[in-house]
């Protein structure tokens, strides 16, 4: 039986989600104007130079009314973006406190922190949250609570789209990092499990699994997530093509701490179809099969009763 949030919780969740979404947009706007512009004299003429945070430089041309206008617009945008980012960051802190006070969130803190870490690293778009934790996105969108029996789990599945492999590897290369190193920013006790190289587990026993579709069409296989020899590998799952073919769905989710993150996942009805197939698979563990069937039913109920626009 789904439990609806109280009126005050619903109002707070909507307000907090709106502010957090604005913060994400402000971060994107600030990223566009990172770096700076400087004037440099070359052979007796002044040139406008655009510099990046990595130290790269590009000439935008000699000094003129046009380049002066470019420099002025850039500085104005940079100042406005910085001020908007500062104000929204402060507002999000307030919203997090209110989330915690009203008990709006219940997503495990480690999951929200992981999603935010991937987002800040610029690789969040390469992963989908699938499996049990996707239900948090659906209940957040509907303003309800799903029974604990359908939610209990100690691991989160991150589905990696191998078609975006080059982008991911180049991003990690620029950061001089790896997937396990990013997870260790969330919790320093995360380690790659020796018996299953696609799983990272922390000292509390919480697991992060990296999964992918069965290799085809030139997919790299086996697939390690970076050049780091001790990094995570991606495990193949038979349902991978169904996940890639699913419609995208994203929602702001809230942790028990009040912190928020954008969760990218799949459409709840596509989730239900995948779970129903799993529940009927002859080689599926009976206990997991019953949970699959329950989760499929819950996802359909949420759409039918609370998110009919998704039907």
Overview of the molecule:
The protein is an alpha+beta fold and 311 residues long. The chain is built from 10 helices and 13 strands. Strands 5, 7, 8, 9, 10 and 11 form a 6-stranded mixed β-sheet that branches. Helix 4 packs parallel to helix 10. The longest helix is centred in the first third of the chain and has 37 residues, at 65-101. It starts with a strand and ends in a 6-residue tail after the last helix.
Mean pLDDT: 94
Oligomer: single chain
Residues in helix, %: 40-55%
In N-to-C order, the SSE pattern is EHEEEHHEHEHEHHEEEEHEEHH
How many beta-strand segments?
13
How much β-strand is present in the residues? 15-25%
Task: Provide a brief overview of the structure.
With 311 residues, the chain is α+β, with helices and mostly antiparallel strands. The chain has helices spanning 7-32, 65-101, 109-120, 134-142, 148-151, 165-175, 179-186, 240-244, 268-280, 286-305; strands at residues 3-4, 36-42, 45-51, 57-62, 127-130, 144-145, 155-160, 191-192, 199-201, 207-213, 235-237, 248-254, 260-266. It starts with a strand and ends in a 6-residue tail after the last helix.
Layout of strands and helices, then pairs:
Blueprint lengths: L2 E2 L2 H26 L3 E7 L2 E7 L5 E6 L2 H37 L7 H12 L6 E4 L3 H9 L1 E2 L2 H4 L3 E6 L4 H11 L3 H8 L4 E2 L6 E3 L5 E7 L21 E3 L2 H5 L3 E7 L5 E7 L1 H13 L5 H20 L6
Parallel strand pairs: 7-10, 10-11
Antiparallel strand pairs: 1-6, 2-3, 3-4, 5-7, 8-9, 9-10, 12-13
Helix pairs in contact: 1-2, 3-7, 4-10, 9-10
């Amino acid at each position: 039986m789904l439990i609806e949030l109280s009126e005050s919780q619903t109002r707070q969740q909507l307000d907090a989600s709106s502010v957090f979404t604005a913060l994400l947009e402000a971060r994107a706007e600030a990223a566009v104007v990172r770096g700076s512009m400087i004037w440099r004299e070359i052979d007796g003429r002044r040139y406008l130079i655009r510099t990046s945070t990595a130290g790269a430089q590009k000439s935008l041309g000699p000094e003129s009314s046009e380049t002066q206008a470019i420099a002025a617009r850039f500085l104005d945008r940079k100042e406005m973006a910085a001020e908007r980012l500062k104000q929204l960051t402060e507002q999000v802190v307030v919203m997090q406190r209110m989330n915690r006070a009203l008990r709006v969130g219940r997503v495990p803190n480690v999951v929200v922190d992981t999603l935010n870490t991937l987002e800040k690293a610029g690789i969040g778009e390469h992963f989908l949250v699938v499996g049990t934790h996707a239900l948090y996105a659906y209940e957040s969108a509907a303003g309800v609570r799903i029974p604990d029996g359908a939610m209990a789990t100690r691991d989160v599945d991150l589905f990696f789209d191998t078609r975006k492999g080059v982008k991911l590897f180049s991003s990690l290369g620029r950061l001089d990092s790896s997937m396990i190193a990013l997870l260790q920013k969330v919790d320093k006790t995360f380690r790659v499990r020796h018996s299953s190289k696609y799983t990272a587990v922390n000292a509390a026993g919480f697991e992060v699994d990296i999964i992918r579709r069965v290799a085809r069409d030139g997919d790299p296989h086996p697939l390690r997530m970076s050049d780091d020899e001790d990094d995570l590998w991606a495990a193949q799952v038979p349902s991978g093509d169904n996940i890639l073919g699913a419609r995208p769905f994203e929602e702001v989710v809230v942790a028990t701490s009040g912190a928020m993150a954008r969760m990218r996942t799949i459409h709840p009805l596509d989730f239900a179809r995948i779970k129903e197939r799993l529940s009927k698979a002859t080689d599926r563990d009976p206990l997991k099969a019953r949970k699959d069937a329950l989760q499929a039913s819950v996802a359909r109920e949420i759409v039918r009763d609370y998110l009919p626009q998704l039907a």
